[in-house]
Design goal:
The chain has 421 residues and is mainly β. Helices cover 12% and strands 32% of the residues.
Length: 421
């Protein structure tokens, strides 16, 4: 069984007990003797502990020899009081009145509270609220409102901070009118959602539009001053203002048509902010080093991507890509086909004839000739149509063809045959 020693210092005046590992016998203490330590008197006890593992305690204070009644006592050094039993003049008066200890709670945020000693308790009045000098209090938010309730407490200890009442108010509302920083209403340019901020950070942006980064998303807000109420103090605005504008349209990022390349090593969906400021994901899973479809976005929020821009979106739609213009306009047309359709048929026909030449000259057979006949027919029909006059107008001539349709072209009357409907 492991044996180790513990040094226990018990306060002469209250229930304060301090324990340390007694690991340096050469810096010895006298058991059940009195020591002056950090402005208080303690009785020292040295005990053997049979416990494993050894508890984690701080190292023992350095003994400072005998106390000689001087005021030059070092911090965290214990001075031996010879022949004393907590009644040395150096020890504090154990009958001194209790500290003025109070529970302090914020008027508008009950979760904001702490214990403190009030240095001027004579300023306390029943039913009032107070502002304090809180320079000795740690862990307060950056822009807390300095309006508080107070109640008596018995929970003070050596670490309890001491504060001072600076002003008394008849109510929290009268305190708020003076102590609480101004409140601002932030209206989202996209969604018209309203956020409330209490503090002086936005004072220079009243009636302007600010651009901020909230959780990695760029948002734009118009800034208005508003009345502070208990409900309006719901959020603290700690984001850095990126830029300032005169209107929402200039603040909001442009919505552009883009494709994103996934540079990560695995397939995934990519996230982006759309033209309405909403967080979205791509419809498809994009493979590693593959491109997404086109999306209208303000910006992509995914990391490890490469973005290709195709121009500004119009009405949340990507712009149409115009077909390349012909350098020379073709000098032909057909009654049933556009030049593009004509060229497609002719090119296909030329490809088939080229394969026939390869087959006859080199014996290379085409294994995909199922459509050859169909393309031959299309090619012949398109050339037959080119023989027609594209400007002709079919005119009914009852005298020439009482029951059928005849037509006049180039001043020639064409007789109708039974095949013409």
């Amino acid at each position: 069984m492991a044996v180790h020693q513990i040094l226990t210092l018990v306060s002469c005046c209250n229930d304060l007990t301090l324990q340390f590992n007694y690991e340096q016998p050469d810096l010895f203490y006298i058991d059940e003797s009195t020591y002056y330590y950090n402005g208080k008197c303690f009785t020292a006890y040295i005990t053997n502990e049979y416990q494993f593992p050894i508890p984690i305690l701080g190292p023992q204070p350095t003994p400072g020899g005998s106390a000689f009644g001087t005021n030059d006592y070092l911090e965290n050094v214990a001075y031996f009081l010879e022949g004393s039993d907590c009644d040395d003049p150096l020890c504090p008066d154990c009958d001194e009145p209790e500290a003025n200890c109070y529970y302090i709670e914020n008027c508008f945020d009950p979760t904001l509270n702490f214990i403190a000693i009030i240095s001027n308790p004579g300023s306390i009045q029943l039913g009032y609220s107070y502002s304090f000098d809180l320079s000795n209090v740690d862990n307060l938010p950056a822009d807390y409102n300095n309006c508080w309730f107070i109640e008596s407490s018995e929970n003070c200890n050596d670490l309890t901070p001491t504060i001072e009442i600076t002003t008394s108010y008849e109510s929290c509302e009268s305190c708020a009118a003076v102590e609480i920083p101004p409140c601002f209403k932030l209206i989202d340019c996209n969604t018209e959602e309203e956020l409330i901020y209490s503090g002086d950070l936005l004072e220079q942006y009243i009636n302007k539009v600010i651009q901020v980064n909230i959780d990695g998303i760029i948002r734009c807000f118009t800034v208005e001053i508003t009345t502070c109420t208990e409900e309006s103090l719901e959020s603290l605005f700690e984001n850095i203002v990126l830029d300032c504008f005169t209107e929402c349209e200039k603040c909001l990022p442009e919505c552009t048509c883009t494709r994103a390349k996934n540079l990560a090593g695995e397939p995934r969906k990519l996230s982006y902010i759309d033209c309405n400021g909403d967080q979205k994901e791509t419809d498809e899973v994009i493979g590693a080093n593959k491109l997404s479809k086109k999306y209208c976005v303000q910006y992509w929020t995914s990391q490890d991507i490469e973005v290709i821009n195709f121009g500004d979106c119009v009405d949340n739609s990507c712009p149409e890509i115009p077909l390349p213009k012909r350098v020379v306009t073709p000098g032909y047309n057909t009654p049933i086909c556009t030049p593009t359709q004509y060229e497609r048929i002719v090119c296909r026909y030329a490809e088939i004839k080229y394969k026939e030449v390869l087959s006859k000259r080199y014996g290379i057979e085409d294994c995909c000739d199922d459509e050859s006949l169909a393309n031959d027919i299309k090619h012949e029909l398109i050339h037959l149509q080119m023989l027609e006059d594209p400007e002709y107008v079919c005119v009914k001539d009852p005298k020439a063809c009482p029951t059928k349709c005849g037509y006049i072209s180039m001043n020639i009357v064409h007789e109708c045959s039974p095949e013409i409907e």
